[in-house]
Amino acid sequence: MLQRILTSGLVAGLIVGIPMILVTITLGENAPSGNLGVAIGYTTMLVAMSVIFLAIKRQRDVVNGGVIKFLPAFLMGLGISAVAGLLYVLAWEACLAISGMDFGAIYAEHLVEAAKARGASEAEIAAELAKAQAFAKMYANPLFRMPITFTEILPVGIIVSLISALMLRNSRFMPARRAA
Q1: Least confident of 50-59, 60-69, 106-115
Q2: Could you state, in order of their start, the residue ranges of all structural domains in the chain?
Q3: Cα–Cα distance between 13 and 48 in angstroms, integer?
Q4: Per-residue DSSP letters for 24-86?
């Protein structure tokens, strides 16, 4: 099972990481951002994490003779999520290195602009600016940034693992085809 976790996690990590790096290389500063960037990013994560379902189904049907309990299935999904998450973090770090982007500063600027757009007072804007600058300084530290990046993909992996384990623990759900 460990080999399947590592292999499937690697596949999922490549599915989510390679497009991110390719977009950074090809589009650079013109890469989708805002709500579109978030939608594309989380859709890619969901597609990548669908590997969890396939891996648990294969474990159930091929290795376990058509049966798998919830907890082993769920833990397998979490393991795959962890490996994929590590590759996601490495891909994001590669994107930052390739592009030279200061994401913390860009995000901080976005927070201040959002405060201005909602009509915040000068004092509120100043407070938002101080928080934004503190965030940008912390985000520059990889030991702070990497766990934040990991928590972007982790909820997707947990949800897909939970749903996959719940569905596939039922041996009548999508049973393996019998050889003719």
Answers
A1: 106-115
A2: 2-101+153-168, 103-139
A3: 7
A4: HHHHGGGS--HHHHHHHHHHHHHHHHHHHHHHHHHIIIIISTT---HHHHHHHHHHHHHHHHH
Contacts for 23 with CB less than 8 Å, ≥ 6 apart: 31, 32
For residue 41, give the nearest of 50, 32, 53, 51 by alpha carbon: 32
Tell me the C-alpha distance between 66 and 24, whole Å.
Answer: 42
Query: pTM above 0.70?
Result: yes
Q: Which residue has the tokens 């982007």?
A: 101
pLDDT at 179: 62
- Banded pLDDT at 30 (limits 50, 70, 90): confident
The C-alpha atoms of residue 165 and residue 11 are separated, in whole angstroms, by 19
Candidates 178, 156, 173; CA nearest to 57 is 173
Element (H, E) at 79: helix 70-99
pLDDT the model gives residue 180:
60
Q: Which residue has the tokens 């901080």?
A: 108
Residues 138, 104 contacting (CB under 8 angstroms): yes
- Tokens for 4, please give them: 């399947």
